[in-house]
Amino acid sequence: MNPSPINYRIDASDRIVSVSPSWSEFAEANLGQDSLPEQVIGRKLWSFVGDETTRELYRRMIARARSGHAVQFRYRCDAPAERRVFAMRISAVSGDVVEFHSQMVSSEARSPVDWLNRAAVRSRDFVVMCGWCARVSLSAGHWVEIEQAIEQHRAFQGAVAPRITHSICPECLQRASRFMSDEPADGRQT
Questions:
Q1: What is the pTM of this model?
Q2: d(CA 186, CA 176)
Q3: Helix (H) / strand (E) containing 143
Q4: What does the alpha-carbon distance between residue 175 and residue 74 come to, in Å, rounded to a whole number?
Q5: What is the dihedral angle through the alpha carbons of 187, 85, 162, 146, rounded to the nearest 10 degrees?
Q6: What digits encode the pLDDT tens for the residues 49-99?
Q7: Residues 6 or more apart from 152 whose CB is under 8 A from it?
Q8: Which residue from 19, 17, 23 is spatially nearest to 3, judged by alpha carbons?
């Protein structure tokens, strides 16, 4: 059984104006106390999107939704001991208010991954993770599953987990470009 959908809305200024009760449940279950409603409501969506490429992609998807064309895609949002795939739908609600509807569509148990544990001690090193497919960039243009990245990182850097920053890999960016075309924006991605 899939958990309740996680919904949130932004206003015409792209400020988060509401979140569903399941938002809080998800944040608490994933050690996201810094993402509870009182920390996010009233803030611009862009304060949570650090990568300029991803920010621009979301701006385009939101504009498309506001023009009456809902955008749908799948993305990974893994937990330390679980691979998770979510389906996102971005659509206009009324006026310039846009709703983000996210529903878990699959979950697969795995051995815990320290890098995804929010409580893990972190080194000063950074790694880049794709916010859509959860692969990690090891070098320019080379993206791998997180387990492979951990193996290679430990061989060169040691056992302490690096800090993770998010971006979008070229493959996911290419898929996402379909959302802004005149083709149906179903964007099926796993």
A1: 0.85
A2: 10
A3: strand 142-144
A4: 11
A5: -90
A6: 988 989 999 999 999 999 999 999 999 999 999 999 999 999 999 889 999
A7: 138, 144
A8: 23
